[in-house]
Amino acid sequence: MRLFNTRTQQVEEFKTLDGSQIAKIYSCGPTVYNHAHIGNMSAYIFADILRRTLQLAGYKTKHAMNFTDVDDKTIRDSVIKYASLSPDKALEKLTRHYENVFRKEMVSVGNDIEALTFIRATESIEGMQQLIISLIEQGIAYIAEDGIYFSIKEYQKSRVYGQLSHVEVADESQSRIDNDEYDKDSAQDFALWKRQKPGEPAWDFEIDGENLRGRPGWHIECSTMSVGELGQPFDIHTGGIDLIFPHHENEIAQSTAGDQAELYANFFVHNNHLLVDGTKMAKSKHNFYTLPDIAERGFDPLDFRMLILQSHYRNASNFSWDNLAAAQTRRRNWRNIAEMRWQIPDSKDDGQTEIINNLIEETSRILQDDLDTPKALRVIDQAFDQFSTDNLNHSALDNLLQFIDRSLGLKLVATTPDIADAERNLLAKRNDAKAIKDWAESDKLRAELAAKGITVNDLADKTIWRRS
Length: 468
What we know:
By secondary structure, this protein is of the alpha/beta class. The chain has 15 helices and 20 strands. It is elongated and about 95 Å long.
């Protein structure tokens, strides 16, 4: 299996660090203060595809994802929304709610959340404090009036900062950034721990007899949670390219300095931006969408998944309502094929099993070559175009559908159950009416089926049904 490694800037053959068949993956997860926007959701879909492809390649996976449940935004929104509660209770109420929202939305886009281990930042505070103490003891972190900061200058004395982003490190002593997220062209010292401000939730932190009561910075959270769950170094770190700097750069610095290690994660695999009508998403541009926004326009979250799969993860993909409609049509066509398995017998094979097995092998190879989902979709499209109602075989088709769901997460099997006995009886009655040329009764039964969401299509020698 081959993947593009941001750390080395080249496509490399993937192998686990310990030579085992267990791939250890960490994915930066959501900040749980609202619905995840579709740009973030595209990153989670990509991470799910990566895990599925590793499994196709014969690996088992240990896949961890964080919940950022304490940061500037969660604190800001929780104290506003739940002003009557204490800051810690308000934070917990807000973040637990959006954790549940996120889990449901992940399932709706086809992600397998059972394959993930979720870790809350607020349940990893002790580990963060231990890492910070280690950095202070090494002289790489220092205590300031408003918190504890990581010194990039001190780190640079023994290691290289900027191995992912190649940013220029400003030659400024103790120039600090205390925001959890920032957009800068050059690196500055960043907050590891923030002293408590009035009305904020906080945790005790004893250092040299002083209580620096406060809460962690954003970057230290992922360093602690990833290593705590997977060990250091681990195999793959995923996230959107917007996280390369400063977040992932700072994770590397903290973790390699704190554990005095040479390597934090072997592969960094980043997905490109999801644009909206060719531009970056922004609330000010009124092009900022979530899955509920998509549902309001009559689209299924799985239509969005198909849209994401239509672009290579290293290329910027473009969301538009027209593009989403095209993805919806493609998924509907695939579902129409999937529904045929209920309408065809397990007839004479005529070589179909071999054809399907070859198709599965080809698609698997394509996905294992740097997750080329667009090419995989085209190959499956071409195969579906060659199918007709006369050459389909139930077992071969079912095998292909199971593979597609296992590798691409489109839930073709789950979303195309057989029709109910009552509906099948109506179909049988309609066929009987057609046989005796009782067109009025036939039309009446067609209308009854349509009212149940079942359309019928009369071919030369048979009738097939489709869900509307």
